[in-house]
Amino acid sequence: MVDPVSRRLIKELKDYQKEPNPDLAELSPVSDDNILIWKAVLRGEVDTPYEGGNWILRIEIPKTYPIHPPKIKFLTKICHPNISFKTGEICLDILKTAWSPAWTLQSACMAIRLLLSNPEPTSPLNCDAANLLRCGDFMGYESLVRMYTQLFAINQSSEYEGTS
Amino acid sequence: MNPEKFPLLSPIDLEGLSYCGFITVKGQELFFQFQHEDSNLTLRNVKLYGCPNLKRLLHGHENALQQRLEQCTNFSEFFLDLKDLLEFIMISEKPEPMPTGRYYLSLLSELNSIGWEKLEILDPSLRNLTLKLSDSSSRKHSIHISIPTSYPHALLNARADIPSISMTQFQATNLKDVINYYSKEFGNFQEVWAMLDDIDLNTWVLEPDKPKRSDLMRRIALGNHCSLKIEIDVNHPRRECQYELFGTESLIVPLHIKIAKNWNNWDINLTVRRNFENILEITFPTFQTSLSSDINFDCGICYSYHFESTIPDQSCNNNKCGQSFHRVCLYSWLQAIPSTKKNFNTLIGNCPYCNDVISTTREQ
Asked: Residue ranges of the UBC core domain (chain A) (predicted)?
C-alpha cells in the first residue's frame, strides 16, 4: 500500500507528464527511491530580463504534504528582490502562510515564475536588487538582472545539477 | 576450533576460516558449508551453503539466521546457535498427513460424474478446487471447495459469492450435492442480481470498486460531486430500498424534495434504477458520458478516492466549487490553519479551493 503523500505526488507527476508545461522544462523526483525530493526547471518569461534563462529549483516535500507546503528554493543563482542571492530561499506567501492544498507542485512553481516578473520590493531578501526598484532605477535593475541571468542561467544548468 | 566438539566438521582452507561437514540435529545429519568471504573475523559477511533439507528447514527463518550471524563473535558460538535454531524449527514443524489412495480415487470419480468442463482451477496439491457454474441468466459463478485429507470420511467445505452470509458456506459429502445446492441458491438471487446488473450497466458506480456478487450496496454518481447510495433488499429486490444522498447541500436539498414528492410513485414492475430515475427526475450519467465532462470525485486534498476504506463524503457548499474531501483530510487541514474556529468537535474554516466557509466534525 502506497502512503497518501506518495499517492498524491504520483498523481501530480502523471498530470505533469500528461500535459507538459512549456514554461516548466522539468518537474520530477530527483531519484527513484525518494519521492519526497523533486527537481524543477523554470524557464524565464519572454520580454522580461529573465528571458532565455533556465533555473533549477529543489523541492523538498514534507511528510504532511499537502497540509503543509513544500520547501522550494533556487539552486541556480538568481537576482530577484524576493529571492536570497546566497541561499536561493524564496519569499512568497503561498509557500508559507497562504498555502492551501489546492496548490500543486506545478502551480507553486508557476507562482514562483510569476513572482519573477512581479517583484515585491517591500519584503526583500535581496536588498541590492530591491533598493534599485525602490529608487525607481528600472534601467539599472533590469540590466543587473539580465547580467546575472546571462552569467548563471543560460547554458549553465548542468553545473548545478547534483548539488543539494 | 575444537575438533573433539565438532567431529563431523573439517576446515577447507589454510587459514581455517571456512568449514564444511555435517551438523547433527535430532538424529538427522545435514550437510553444510560455511565460507568466509574475507579475512575479517566477524561473521557479518559469511556465506552458508547447505543440503536441500537444511535449506527447506531454514526457509522463512532468514532473519533469525542473519541476526545470529551478526551477534556471534566466533564460529563455534554460531555453530551451537545454528544447532539450537534447527532443533527449534524441527520441533515446531508438524508434517501434515498425506491423503490416502481412497481420497484420490473418490475425487477422480466425483469429477468424472460432474463433468470435467465444470472444473476451473485445481491446485497442485489436489486439496482445493474451483468449479464454475452458470445460472439461468448465464452469469458466471465460482464455487471454491476445500477437501479435508480424510475425505471421503469427512465433509467437503464449499464457499461461493452470494449475498447471504448464512448461505455462503456449505458442507457436503460429494461434488454433485454442492452443485445442486448452489444451482438452487443462485436461482433464488436472480431478481437481486438483475436489479444490480441493471445499475452496474446503466450508471457510473463509484462504490464498490469492483462489485462482487455478494455486494448489495451501490454508490451511484449523479454529477457535480453528488452521489446516491442505495442498498438492495435481498428479500424484496424490486421494492423501495434504503438510500442516502451525498454532496453539496444546495444540490442535494432539491433531490430530497423530489424524493418526498415522488416516493409513492414507486413502480414494482420497473427496475430499482428506473424507479430512482423517475423519482429524482434525472437520468444517471454513465461512466462513458461522464468521461468527457470532468466530473471529479477524488478528494481535493489527498487526490485519491479511497482513503483507509473511506470515500470523500464532505463537500464544499459553494455551488461553483462543490469540491469533495475525505473527512479525515479536511479535518487535518482545518486543524493545521490558525484561522480555523473550533466549536466542540466541529471545526469551522475555509475551503482550500474557494475560501468559502466550510465545516467538518471529527469521525464519531
From this structure: 4-154
Complex-level ipTM beyond the 0.90 threshold: no
Cβ atoms B82, B23 nearer than 8 A: yes
For chain B, how far is it from start to end, CA to CA, in angstroms? 66
Residue among B191, B201, B153, B193 at smallest CA distance from B173: B153
Verify whether the Cβ–Cβ distance B352 to A67 is below 8 Å: no
Would you call A14 exposed, middle or buried from its count of C-beta atoms within 10 A (0-12, 13-18, 19+)?
exposed
Asked whether the beta carbons of residue B304 and residue A66 sit closer than 8 angstroms, the reply is no
CA distance B176 to B277: 43
Tens of pLDDT, residue by residue, chain B (364 residues): 566 667 788 888 777 778 888 888 877 888 888 787 666 666 677 788 888 888 888 877 888 888 887 777 777 788 888 888 888 888 887 766 778 888 888 889 989 988 888 898 888 778 889 999 888 888 889 999 988 888 888 888 998 888 876 667 888 888 889 899 888 888 888 989 999 999 988 888 888 878 888 899 998 888 777 889 999 988 888 888 889 888 778 888 889 999 999 988 889 898 999 999 999 888 888 776 655 445 567 888 988 888 887 888 888 888 788 888 899 999 999 988 888 888 888 899 999 998 889 989 887 5
If one looks up domain B314-361 in CATH, what number appears?
3.30.40.10
- B302 with A100: Cβ contact below 8 A: no
Nearest CA to B272 among B227, B235, B231, B302? B231
CATH class of residue range B192-292: alpha beta
Q: Where are the domains of chain B?
A: 9-92, 101-188, 192-292, 314-361
For domain B101-188, the CATH architecture is: Roll (3.10)
Residue of A nearest to B301 (CA): A101
The CA-CA-CA angle for residues B309, B310, B312, to 5°, reads 145
- Cβ–Cβ under 8 Å, residues B61 and B68: no
Task: Give the residue among A53, A57, A31 at the shortest CA–CA distance from A112.
Answer: A57
Query: How many residues can be counted in chain A?
Result: 164
Question: Are domains B192-292 and B314-361 of this chain identical in fold?
Answer: no
Q: CA-CA distance, A100 to A83, in Å (whole number)?
A: 21
Nearest by CB to B353, from A64, A67, A102: name it. Answer: A102
